[in-house]
Amino acid sequence: MTAELVRGQNHPLDRTRVEIRIAAGGPVVAGVTLADAQGRLPGAEAVAHPGAPRRTGVEVPRQAAAEQRIAVDLDALPEPVHRVSVLLALPTGIGTLTAFGAAAAPSVTVTDLDGTGLVGYTLTGLGAETAVVAVELYRRQGAWKVRAVGQGYADGLAAMLRDQGLPRAAELAAEIEEAVGAGHARAVPAPAPVTPAPAAAGRPDGPARAEDPAGGPAADRSAPAHPDAAHGPVASGPGPGPGTAPGVEAPAGPLAKGAAPPVPTAGAPIDYRHPERRPTPGPADLAQPPSAPPAGAAPDGPPLPVAGDAAGWSMEERLYNQVWGMFEDLARSVAAYRSACDFAEARLEQELDEALADPRHRIGTTADVARAGARDKHTALIAQARAALDRDLAQLTAESEVVEPALPTAFARWDNPVWHGRGTPQERPMALRLGDLHLPEVRDLRIPMLVRLPLERGLWIDSGPGAVGRGAPDPDRAVGRRELGSALTEGPPDEAELRRLALETAVAVAARMLASHPAGDLAVQVIDPAGTAVPALAPLLESGVLPAVPVPGAKGAATALEALIRRVDLLQMAARSRAVDALPPDLDTADQLVIVHDFPHGFDDRAVARVRYLADEGPAVGVHLLMVADRARSREYGPVLDPLWRSLLRITPVPDAHLADPWVGHAWTYEPSLAPQGSQVVRQVLDRVARARG
């Protein structure tokens, strides 16, 4: 099945000889540029176009047409070539299109030589653009991938070639236009349109329905097949409901929208699962008769749980969507149970009031019978609601037992064997696990709490007494001790223990992020004016991931913040002016995870202002804050820091029910993700990260 990309998304290629097929709403000119690892073009000889259709490893069409094919042999490309960009432009004087937005969105499909689709991308959102960089094939660490680009240019082909860094771009654009005009003059006329087949027997008369060549209904080419997913629970962005109340942190359920539910055939059973929990069907799937239920499942029973049984174009995305589908299902089931209990209570009160309304019935056997009957009905309603909840929980528990072992590294618990693998990731993960969520009615069912990457909000680990808030589970419970490992001993932790646990949580989050990124793509810095974080930072220091002990004192904090502010400003200017090559050679362009300990102790007014600036501007250029602080200790600054705390995602080093769900009104209990007691998995992971960096 063809993997449909959205803008900015990439997909690996498992073969090197491919075709790139283009379909547009009118004649377009197709070309290819061959750039090096830095995206530079040596000259016009690195461009394949209608005037020079053949370059080493690439061949493009000579004419403008609504359908184009480009042949690419990645193995035959010259060694310096690391990026193959596919360019589309509207020819002048040919066709009626004056802008891409005036017709159906063009689509690009990377196929095998036999036409089997591998990767597809529909260029939606185009308006006045007359030229566009559609997709690029790029080489990373010896493997080729496809990226959906969709960068349009209203000033046409010359502006696009100039932006590609090509010298004398206007002259080459004129040469291409001349070649296209000459090719159009000797082009073979298009074949006559095919007469549509007669309507199938039994189909009612009416307007003819367009059909896809594969046999299914024609897809809407003007809309993306798989738009971006929303942000997830306790992640930045809106949740599954209409929004978050001011001052309330809300876990939301990020699900990939856009996967169309399958159309049931005649006589087929209806699938009542959430549309985004179903696998994305293809035309061939829609043409098949309904299959028999799997072995071991009753024909009318729930389907057997399968890891990755959700919409998505990669296993990681399918598991991500499945996790938050489980979150939504649990939220709905518990909301239904609570609603049924509320109804039972209200009905009990109403029936008791009615039974006792007549003074003659307030005493004696009549009153006793009425009260007993009302209570029996109440008990029956509660039992019925609990049975429905238990049925849903059994299915969700079975699904969790299948999904949890299949989660990739960034999504997995620390006790998952996947952490003992030796491989180094080649791509950044789409999300990161910060902990688990559960509800009071079902303490034993944990839903992974995932946040999208890159982080759009900083993190704040609350190290003060407020970390043990309302609704927190009893720390003496066996499950609490199992989850927190060495964190809890006897009774709730004191203030010193909370600070230690907060730093341990910060180190675990840093280790998870480092292990989930390609080698060298993420670096860790620590700002610790008081110098009290060194013992907890031992895993980072001993592995060499943190190169040196953080410089204590106000001067050390000021120096580190000044370097980070300089990095943010330079990267912002380079991005705005598209001059990344002009960055200073000593600037580390890797993303930065900045652990700020015991804020605002040891920070003067200037340093506080810089921390606020990093929280606002840093995420856009890869600088992410991880604050370890007690908010109560910042009261001396007054309300000036309130916007900073509200901009961060608060998590706690111990279980706490502080995450509000505005969708159905739940208060979810958050539990941090820490290594099991006595485990050395965090140190082993950091050692592996250090070795991968060389």
Descriptive report:
The structure is a single chain. By secondary structure, the chain is of the alpha+beta class. Among the domains are: 3-185, sav2460 like domains (Lipoxygenase-1), CATH 2.60.60.30; 419-693, Rossmann fold, CATH 3.40.50. The chain contains 12 helices and 21 strands. It has helices spanning 157-163, 169-185, 283-287, 315-355, 365-406, 478-484, 495-516, 538-543, 553-577, 605-617, 642-647, 681-693; strands at residues 3-5, 10-12, 17-35, 47-48, 54-55, 58-59, 65-73, 83-89, 107-111, 117-122, 131-140, 143-153, 431-439, 442-452, 459-462, 522-527, 591-599, 623-629, 649-651, 656-660, 667-672. Strands 1, 2, 3, 4, 5, 6, 7, 8, 9, 10, 11 and 12 form a 12-stranded mixed sheet that branches. Helix 1 (157-163) packs across helix 2, helix 4 (315-355) packs antiparallel against helix 5 and helix 7 (495-516) crosses helix 12 (681-693). The radius of gyration is 30 Å and the shape is globular.
List the helices and strands and how they pair.
Blueprint: E1 3-5, E2 10-12, E3 17-35, E4 47-48, E5 54-55, E6 58-59, E7 65-73, E8 83-89, E9 107-111, E10 117-122, E11 131-140, E12 143-153, H1 157-163, H2 169-185, H3 283-287, H4 315-355, H5 365-406, E13 431-439, E14 442-452, E15 459-462, H6 478-484, H7 495-516, E16 522-527, H8 538-543, H9 553-577, E17 591-599, H10 605-617, E18 623-629, H11 642-647, E19 649-651, E20 656-660, E21 667-672, H12 681-693
Helix pairs in contact: 1-2, 4-5, 7-12, 9-10
Strand count, sense and closure of the main sheet? 12 strands, mixed
Number of strands: 21
CATH fold-type name of the domain at 419-693: Rossmann fold
- Helix fraction by DSSP (H/I, runs of at least 4): 25-40%
Backbone structural class: alpha+beta
Overall 3D form: globular
Quickly give the CATH architecture of the domain at 419-693: 3-Layer(aba) Sandwich
Classify the beta-strand content into a percent band.
Answer: 15-25%
Tell me the distance between the termini: 39 Å
Rg, please?
Answer: 30 Å
